[in-house]
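A reminder from the course coordinator: this example appears on the midterm review sheet, so study it carefully.

Given structure:
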């Protein structure tokens, strides 16, 4: 892939992510803050999307939306933390990694033809 396809964090976003993951989420204060309420809204959105997909037979009916949500956040938090903290951003094609994780997560929940009604 050419450099035009590489994902780069603007410096302000990189600082925000580092602060969020390394300082805020590890703090008890985060879980009583307005930021945590926003985070919970994203959690609900993901779970609702999974439930809608199950109802439409697009996603497997056995998918636990809470477990998927945790996998989703865990995968992306781990990748972005690695890019920021370990300074791997120069050696990693972020867009390619994001695409691979997205493909894995999507294939994990997609309903098979026999599961679609």
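Designed residues:
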């Amino acid at each position: 892939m050419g450099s035009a396809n590489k994902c780069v964090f603007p410096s302000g976003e990189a600082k925000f992510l580092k602060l969020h993951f390394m300082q805020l989420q590890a703090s008890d204060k985060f879980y009583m803050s307005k930021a945590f309420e926003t985070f919970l809204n994203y959690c609900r959105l993901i779970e609702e999307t999974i439930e809608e997909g199950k109802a439409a037979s697009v996603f497997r009916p056995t998918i636990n939306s809470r477990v998927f949500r945790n996998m989703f956040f865990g995968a992306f938090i781990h990748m972005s933390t690695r890019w920021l903290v370990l300074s791997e951003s120069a050696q990693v094609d972020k867009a390619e990694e994001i695409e691979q994780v997205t493909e894995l997560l999507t294939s994990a929940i997609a309903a098979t033809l026999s599961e679609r009604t």
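Residues 11-115 form one domain. The mean pLDDT is 79.
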